[in-house]
Amino acid sequence: MKSDALVLPRMQVASGGNASPLRHRVRWGERLIQGFLFLCGAVSILTTVGIVAVLGRESLLFFASPEVHLSEFFGTTTWQPAIERFGIWPLVTATLITSSIAMLVALPLGLAVAIYLSEYASDKARAILKPVMEILAGVPTVVYGYFALTFMTPLLRSIFGRDVVEIYNTASAGIVIGILIIPLVSSMAEDALRAVPDSLRQAAYGLGATKLETAVRVVLPAALSGVTAAFIVAISRAVGETMVVAIAAGAGPKFTFNPFEAAETMTGHIVRISGGDLSYDSIDYNSIFAIGLLLFVMTLTLNVISQRIVRRFREVYE
Amino acid sequence: MTITLERPMVRRKESPAPQANGGQYAIETNGLNIYYGAFHAVRNVEMKVARRKITAMIGPSGCGKSTVLRCFNRMNDLIPSARIEGEVLFQGENIYADYVDSVEVRRRIGMVFQKANPFPKSIYDNVAWGARINGFKGNVDNMVERSLRGAALWDEVKDKLQQSALGLSGGQQQRLCIARAIAVEPEIILMDEPASALDPIATLRIEDLMQELAKDYTIIVVTHNMQQAARVSDFTAFFSVDEQRTGHMVEFGPTDQIFTNPSDQRTEDYITGRFG
Hints:
The complex is a heterodimer. Chain A is mostly helical.
């Protein structure tokens, strides 16, 4: 019986491979799906390539024009396209200020929420808090913009004084961007914390660790790469946030490090300029692509740096 | 030794009746019943665990031996639905009394788990971690070396203390977990099937180590392996499970007696391999 079964396919191969039940079959459905899935993946890659190409070409036109010099672009602190002054720093500093303030708000709060949700919260508390965070994440950013202008700014002015805090200021925008990205930080960080195996928590408790010691000194270090990934995404989001800064941060480039003064960020400037009557192929038009390219390079650099940090410090638990 | 860990087990308020000598036994249970929600997991365990001896808990799967073990250092507190009735006396003091802090209990009653679970840190930090969080003030290097020697691991790792613990073999990882447990100087070490994931040679090393450790520590070990219980333990508790899936202790006594002359038919059936 057994030997028959073994011999049978071999005989068929000998008598002509095509008749073998083991013969390779063409599965059209399988190929079709595979091709479709590949196409879906390719779309996102091609889009990125397209964006970089457009940014690069228009920026090249900008930097190639006689009014612009790279040394001026990176070396001076006045951005006034109307009089052909193209020093990028006012826009960069405003972006750095709003993003830094946003991260100061979002990282500690988001991480605290994540630790609470993953290590402390009862199922009941989680069932309430998670949907609330999702609602927070679902509010349109234009609403956050007016929240900054009509709530956060008056609050800051009542605390620090009306003559200190201008009506449009980067601090207010930065704080509100921070609030806006808390759900992003907390949900990504929570996923990373919850992925840490329970056996590590048990080991810590078994050594007489408290809940806090377990969370901060075992679970968090073990989840560091995921938590850092959450931070990276959050920073990119803060740098790229547009609506809040367009509404609340100010409309006019200004080189300042005072967060209570009005200043225009890179994104805010792009959206204001492109909202006006901008003629195609003018130097103003090309300048916004140069700003866009710099934004892109900034977030890319952040990604690369933080990935290196993660690779260096992460604790692999498997 | 420069251990400065002396902290009373009582944190929240004074013990009503502190027992100076701490009773005759390391662990003594009185009418211990354990529930998971409505499910009665283990009933009426009466067990007296001698100090500085190895006590083995054996029995078929689902008989509640691991559940009982985890009651001895209040690890079951971490399971929200778990509930216990009765007393677990640690050196004469009920660890489930209202005033007792479960964190302090676990500091004094350490645990080694079925699957080696070293922290994703260096070998050195794994051993130092527990002592550090407990406020260890002495020389950490010496303490780490002493603990690793105590766990018979020093010679194998002394040249790579700063390397990740996860690079060690399974048996080495488990001995590292034992080193980590003894670094905080507990009085009792609970072991939940510590060798079940190891090969026979690594298992033997763990068993040798257990006997070495029993000179200084009380060891309670849950095992599926009856030969292991017979080889290493001084006392054996045999657990079984009834029709309601409730676990209970059938017989408890010196290991020789349990294995050669059990007084209960069920124990005899189990150890002779008639079921389980």
